[in-house]
Each structure stands twice: as C-alpha cells, then as structure tokens.
Amino acid sequence: MVSLYNTGLELANLLLGSDLLNQSWEAISKLQKQNLTLLEDPSLPFSVKYQIYENPSKGSVIAFVSSPNCAVNHLQQEFRELVSSDQITSFDFLRTRSNASSISIHKAAFTLFSSLENELSLLKQQFTSSQPLIVTGHSLGGSVASLFTLWLLESLPSYGAQQILCITFGSPLLGNNGFQKAMSEHPVWSSCFLHVVSDKDPVPGFLISDHNASAATLTTPTWYMPFGTYLFGSESGFSCFEEPQSILELMIMSSRCAESENLHNRSQVIDYGHILEQLKNKAICRGISELPDSISNPLQAGTYLLLEATGVGKLQENVNLSYLAMNIAKRAEVQAKHKQNVFDPFKISVTKKSLTYLEYYIKNSLEESGYYDKYKTRRSRSRDEIESTENLIKHHRTLKFFWKRTVTEVENLPLKEGRIRRKRLLYAATNYRRMVEPLDIAEYYGRGKKDYVLHGRSEHYKLLEKWLAGENTQTYQRSQASSLTVDSCFWAYVEEAVISCQVLKGSPQDQQSARGNLIKFEQYVMDMINNFLVSREIFLPQSSFMLWWNEYSKVVGNSYTSPLTNFMNDGVRSYA
Q: Which residues form the Fungal lipase-type domain (predicted)?
C-alpha cells in the first residue's frame, strides 16, 4: 500500500490500542485544570504553560497548553502572520543552501516558543535518547510542542528519534511550504509527529480557511502547509493521511463546515477527550459501507474508506467522495513513484567502472597529445580509437549525470548535514571535476563556441569548486608536477588564448585587448607552473597548449621576453 496512509494507519491503530492518545490528552487536561482561570479569560494575551508528568513505567509526558483557550472568536487576521527564516535562528538547522530564505513559521507559535526558550533549553539538556518521551499539546500549545520536539530532535543522534513522539490536538498549521519541504528532508523526524484533528474543530484549518483556500495547490512561500501524520476524527471513526496536499484539501473542507456549524458558538473549544472515549474501542476505518463502482483499485478503495471516516461526506453534501478519493490516490501513486526513483547520491561505488575507464584513457593518451586533445580531435582517429572514444563518451555521461544529481541532493540537505556530506565527498568530487570537466571544455570549443567559463560551464562544477574553497583546505608546497591539472578550467583558458592569438593578427583596434588578455594568461600559466599545479601533459608536442605557444612565439617575435618565454625556452625539461 502506498505511504499516503499506510504507516499512519498502523501508527494510529497502535496509539489507540496502547492508550497513548488518552494518556496524552489526560496530561493536557490536568494542565488545563491547573490554569483554569487563565484559560477562561479571553481578554488576556496569549501565553503558554507546560508541565512534565513522570511515569517510570511508560516514560515522561511534557504537556503544553495555551491560555486563553484558543477558539475561533480569539483568532484575528494578524494570527495568520508568518515569521521568516532570518528571525528564527533557533531553527537554522532546517535551512539548506536552496531554501535558506524560504522557510517561515507561524508567528504566534514561534513567539510563544521563544518566551519559554531559556526554560526549554534546560529541559532539552535533561533529556537523553534512552528515555521514552511524549510531547503533547492542545491548540497553540500543540504548535509549541511541535517546535520543542523539533528542537529536541536536532540535538539527538538519529536513533534517539525512536524514543520521541509528538501528539498535538486541534493545533493550527505550523509553517509554510518551505518549512514542509525542509521537514520532508527528514523523514525520520516527520514520523515523530501525529496531529489529531476533529471534524468539528475549525481551529486547525483557520490559517487556510479564508482567501488562502481559494488556491487548489498552495505552494507559494506565504501559504501554510501541513507536515507529519494527520489523524482525522469524526463520529464514523479515525482516518490517517500523510501526503501534505491531501491533508490540506481535507482541512479546507472540514474547516469550512466546522465554522458553519459553530457559527453561533464561536467560543466553543472541542473536547478531544470525549472524542477519544467514543473511539476507544473502534479500529480505524471500521464499519464502512459498500464502495461505489467508480473505485477501480485497492489504493482508491483505501482512500475512499479513509475519506468516509473523516465525515467529509456528511459535512458537505456536494463532495464527491469517489472523485476526491481517485484524485488523492493518483497523487499518492505519483509521490510513491518519485520516492522509488530517488537517487542515492552517496553510493560512489556505482561510478567506479566509469572512473576506471577514464583513468585508463588518460594513461594511454600520454604518449600522444594528452587526453584533452585526443578527445577534442576524436573525429580524425582510427576506427579502434573512435570506438575507444565512444566508450569514453558513454562513461563521461555516466559520471556527469551521477555528479549532477549528487550535487543537487547535497545542496538541498539541511546545512549541518550538508556540510558533513560535502566533506565526505570532497576528495572524490574534486578528482571527478579535474578529470571530467576538460572533456566538457573540449566538446564546447569543438563546436566553435567561446567564453566557456562565462557561458558554458555547468552549475554543478561551480558548486564543486565552492565546496573545495569552503573547506579551507590547507595548501602545501608541491615539489613535483600534479598528475591532474589542478584548475579544471585550464584548457578553457588555453582555448581563449588561442582565440586571442588569432586576434593579434587581425584589426589593430582589437589587438590591444587581446594582448592584455595574453599577458594575463602568461602570468596565470607561470603561477601554475611555479607551484607545480599543471600536469606534464600540457607540454606534449601536439597539445593545444604547445600549439598555442608555437603560434604565440611567432606573433610576438624573438625579441619578446617574459617569465613564460624564459621558462619555455630553457626550463620545460626541468619541469618534473
């Protein structure tokens, strides 16, 4: 069964059978009774209370409640506001290079969390990964419970997440689309969150129940999106969903209907304890009627049963459950297919064959013009060499595809995890770039193009170069030539020098600029030579570099001297 509801269904049935939902709500109820005066005074500003309930046999429960109790009549337009990523430094660990500016969190929830941050920091230090812990909360208290759980998860090793479960009741959505995407990068973390929502409670969908709901796909940075598992409750039973867009659609419909039913009682606060008591002995999605003929496969059937259990059909007569079930099921199938095709960027061994072939190709090119020029002039080779080059093209594409996907995956990781992965991959990534990018350059200039560095260079090469620069690796003084030219764009600069050399033979108005470019190139080459950063293959007689040098020497004449001319005339043989 597709993960649209499979794991959530198992989790929900497990929680009902283990009484953990009731245990969580009992902790919330105790805390609410202790703060009854504050909870019932709507004139007070929002605040949050928490309490730890120890149970040696079952672990600890930390409950959060907001005061006053959050009902629809308390919620104003400013309640919809988000706080952007530059103001939520406590959750910087969610940011990646690609989403650094797109993550936003519900402002009211974050403000309440911040008011307790010092206390919660001490509480976080007390928790160890060996202790079972339930973090729970109602309404805005549930939002604060979610933020604390997330904060706690980041500080624990991955196996520590198995000991934590966050259960919220009637909580508003917590973050925007960027926040949901960041959470999707942490499936283990997402699995720790269960949000219980009643079909009678308008609060969970309040943030999307007005003009936001007019968009069928709420993907802009300012819209709220759900994360984790949602447990929808009605008189018919409970149903679970994990796919965000499906949850959103259900919340929109349920919220509209709940607001309509509670129009004359907008101060009503839903008693989730009563709902849990009614459903205590019910399995999820039990007692459903026959399926419509339009339902054609097991996934659609399961989705239909779940939708019927939410009570959507009873709440809104014009809802076509069959149509909705088929749409949600189709989206789940697409999501599942995408997950099956997720590329694992860290299995470097899959590229070993291609790297081995490329190393073999480089080694067997050293007696000629070098592998750059052998690849560049492949059209004039013999049949055997053409076949060899065709194999190289295949392996070249394999490596490039692999590393493009790898770079994309790593760049989308949270910053902390991304740094770790980049460090692990740095040697292999740098070696790949220095071996393969010259082949891209050969193809580029072979098509008669110019300015590879500005107009032709793939973004993933630029990022790989930034990885190396970002690690602040210590430089050391080389005593012999590098086996691979360190600057993977070296041959692009050679090709530009060839073009500039041709310009020197042309109109006088272009010669000054070309001569300036060639002087800079000379300085660049000498710096590379002095630091042994170029491979000896650039000095092979038929290499593009030597062909450029021979032509350049004729253009500038015998009277021209420079460090490079002195080296080329006297020092090439000594370059070890």
A: 89-205
* DSSP-derived secondary structure for 421-436: HHHHHHHHHHHHHHHH
Q: Does residue 311 carry a pLDDT above 70?
A: no
Closest by CA position to 163, among listed 190, 128, 197, 136: 128
Picking from 185, 84, 255, 214, the residue whose alpha carbon sits closest to that of residue 415 is 185
The gap from C-alpha 462 to its chain's centroid, in whole angstroms, comes to: 19
Query: What is the Cβ-side half-sphere exposure of residue 18, based on CA atoms within 13 angstroms?
Result: 10
**How many residues does this entry show for the chain?**
576
pLDDT above 90 covers a percentage of the chain that reads 24
pLDDT tens string 126-149: 776 667 889 999 999 999 999 999
- How far are the Cα atoms of 10, 21, 162, 335, 509 from residue 16, in angstroms, in the given order? 10, 6, 18, 28, 84
Q: How far apart are CA 336 and CA 341, in angstroms?
A: 9
- Distance, CA of 131 to CA of 135 (rounded, Å): 12
Cα gap 545→523, rounded to integer Å: 14
pLDDT band, very low/low/confident/very high, at 318 (cuts 50, 70, 90) = very low
Closest-CA residue to 479 (of 373, 377, 574, 561): 574
Find out whether 146 and 171 touch, Cβ atoms under 8 Å.
Answer: yes
Name residues whose C-beta falls within 8 Å of residue 314's C-beta, 6 or more positions apart in sequence: 234, 236
Average pLDDT of the chain?
77
Sole residue written with tokens 């245990």: 23
What is the model's pTM? 0.60
Report d(CA 41, CA 424) in Å as an integer.
55
